[in-house]
Structure formats: C-alpha cells, structure tokens
Predict the structure.
Amino acid sequence: MRHPAPIPSLDRSYTFKGHTITLAIESTILRWTRPFTSYPLFATFVIVYIVSSVFIIRSQWYLIPASSLVGCTSVFWTENAGCGLNGELCAPFSDDSFSFRCPAQCSSVVLQNPRIIGDLEVDFVPLLVGGGDGQRTYRADSFLCASAIQAGFIKDSTGGCVTVNLVGQFTDYLPTASFGLSSVGFTPSFPMSYRLTADNTLGQCTDLRNVALAVNILATCLLFAVFRPKPIVLYWFLVCIGFWHVALFSQPQQEPPPLDVAFGAFLPTLLVGYGLWRVSWRFTLPAFANAPFEAMIWYLAPYWAGVLTNLTTANIPIDQLTTADITQQPGGLTALIIIVLIVLVLVLNQVHVIRKTGWLPWYLGWYVSGGLVALALAFLPGLQFRLHHYIISLVLLPGTGFPTRLSAIYQGFLLGMFLNGVAAFGFASILQTAADLAADGPTGSPLPDFVTNSATYDPSVPLGNQTIFWSSIPSALITEGWNGFSLLVDDVERYAGNALNYSLAGLDAGLPHFFRLAYMSGGSAGDFTMPATLWPNGTWVDPLPGPS
C-alpha cells in the first residue's frame, strides 16, 4: 500500500472562527502558466539558460590568464620542511611581483589542522601572520586571499584582484585585526615576506558565483512553477544544475576548474542519479503535479541548502566525521550530539510513515544488512571508515520514497548534499588510510628527543658559542627506514642530515628562537616535535609532548 498523495495546501478551504476561506492559488498558477508549458517555449528557455551559463562561465574563468587564478589557501611558503633546506625550493624570496585574482568567500576557509607559528598553535582560522606594521608586511605562508581581505584590497563577498610584491627577509611581524580577520605575530626573522597593492592590470576581477547562483535559482524556480516539464525531466535538470554549479562556481576543485576531473565525476553521478530516481524521487515528485508552487517551496529551499553545504554547514565544528576531528574541534562533540538527535527525530517520523504503508520490514531488512556490511568494513586492518556526506545522502534517500511533504524536503536536501559531495570531492572512498585522513596534519610517525633542555642549557655562555643536541636514532627505528634528522629553526628548515647537534652561532641574540625536530626517511621529514623555545634572556623552554 502506498501513502496517499498530499492535498495541495493552497487549493483548499480553511475554516477559522466560523468563517470559511477558500484558496485557489495553485489552480490559478496552473491556469496562468499553462501557455508556457509548450515544448517550443520550454526548448527556448533551455537554450537561453545554456547560452547565459556559458557566458557566465567564460567571464568567471577564461578572461584572465589561468596562472593569475589562485585559491583561498594559496601561499608562497609551505609548512614545515616543504620549502626545503633554507627555503631553496620556494625561491625567489624578493624582487618579484605577481598579480592574481581571489575567489569569493575566502574568509570562511580555515586551517583544518593545527599549524605552529613560533610557539603559537593556530587552528580553525585563516592562516595570517603579520600585516600589523605600517606597510602591511605578511609572512610568506599567510593565505594570500585572506591577507588581501584583511588589508582591505578585496571584498570577501566578491573576491577581486591584487598585486603581491615579495620583499624578502623581515623581522617582527606584528599582529592585526580588520575586516573580521585576525593575524598572529612572529618576532624572529623569516626569509620571505610580501606586501600587497591594488591591481589594475587584470580584467575580470569579480567572482561571479553569486550571479551564477541567482541565475540557477531562478531557472529551477521557473522549471517548477512555470514550465513544469515531466517529473523525470525536472529531476534531471536538478541533478545537472546542482552538480555543475558546485563544480564550476561554489566549490571548484581548483582554479580554474579541471573540466576533465569534473566530467569524470559527472558520468557516474548520472548513473547514481538514475538509481536515486528509481528508489525515491519517482514516488514523491509526481505527487505534487497539481501543486507546483508548493513543490517549489518544499523541494528547492532544502535542495539549494544541500548544494551549498560548504556554506550552510560552515559554522558547524565538524569537518571529517571521524573521532579525531570531532574531539579536536571545540564544540564538535556537542554539535554531533545535536545533529544525531535531529536526525533521529526525522528518521523516527519517516519510520512512522513507512510503517503505515506496510513496507517497514522490507526497508528494515535492507538497512540492517547495509549496517552489518558497514560494520565489517570498519574493522578492516590498516583502514579507517569514513562516512562522507555524499554517502549519507545515498543511505538515507531510499527511505524518502513516499508522497509526503517531509519526504519532499528530505529529498531536496539529500540530493543537493549528494551533488555537493561528488562535484567538490569526487566519489571518495568509504575506507581511507590514516595518512589520507591526516591530510596536512601529523601522521603519527615517531618523534625525536632534544638532549638540550631547561636543565642542561647554560645561559651564561654567549649565543654564538652555544650548540644544541638531540638523541641518536634508536636501532628499532633505523630498521624501519628512519636515517636522519630535519631541524626547523624559526619555522625554516636549517639542517637536514645525520648529525646530532646544531650550532647557534648564526642566530640573533636579541630575538627569541624556536626549534622543532623530526626524523627523516628517504629524504622526507616525518612529524616534527612541538617547539623548544630559547628566549633572549637565555631561558630555554622545553617542548610540549606530541607532534606539531
């Protein structure tokens, strides 16, 4: 037995205090828009939409050189030993300039793993170091676009073009706060810095994602309320519009969008989309054939909230649905509990709907079987179970195939979230290694030990005559392939080799200095220790336990 189709809310009579009010909004919309449902007009609309979208895409990505397009996390200097010994891999350090265009909404793009700046740990904010001096000098590992927003050269809502000038070594980066962004300070010298100036050389500097969003929202509203194609045609328009909006505008995988990668994900998306139509949408969307305006409200509001998941969930302190991520972010556990409770209430309501149709045992059988398979996968050795948000959509959508208003809301949001996931990140595996999940965070590799500590460091010896020491590599780690050391001094790799000491003769005695140490294997550094700090008064502060 199927659930009866909903009666249009805007085409019925309501009695209030003895007065009867009869609404005929839906029937009026159907009557007024009937001339627009002809195939010639619909085909004209499709052609106009495609042509206008092509012009927007062209203006967004192809009117300035691809080399001038940068992402929200673009930097000149990569973390830890990424720039090599003395930063040689990131040269030149000065006397160079570069004009670039930033996308919109970079203020909300933040570090997802802790980053050490001197002895400070920075996390869940855009990485900004400096900018507080009169010339607004930033350390080279600061996010370019966030620094341009903070310096007032571009707006977060529209992006913009800026010219960056490399100025080489700088000392005493001052913190500042403006336009909703705060930076941290860094006292020691750093070999690479930059300053920003307004740009007038590039042409199209405005990020058109908001224009594209307005066009796409208008197009989907017209499809629902005016042109009203067959339900399956309407469904495929939602699949295509949502996917390409994410891939080309709201969350491209890089700048400019790699179309080969996007098409590589689009074809399997169509295949999965057909499966979603068969198991859920075909039972719900046609039930609103006589209520196009109501269907537009129930479907499109949650649909666009799902397509723009990167914005609608930006303030939820959960990035990866893993134990490490939830415990690391402040408020992550509380947010998870609230989300679970909300989902539980919604699921119980949907279970009630399914039970009334008599299909509950069938659905329970499939969901229990799927849960057992997922449980078995979660215990595979060397891999971690990762529930991507597109997978959550795939799991929940089959349970929404009923002609109710809540099912329409669920379907809209879940389809949008599915499209966001596969367009922005591809069909990522449900099983990933620890290194995959760590991204740019600690990998769990062994950490070396400093022999020099607060008890052995002699502040009476001039800094130029000081040498710091660390322990040799244990034999057990040598058999694992660890064969050297990498030393960061003031966040720059200053030594890579087999020695067990480092001379401080070249350091400025009037500045604080920070030391982090890592084992090396095959020329690559593992996790670095937390920083040991040497203050100008000769005080040595031992590093905290754990990796940085």
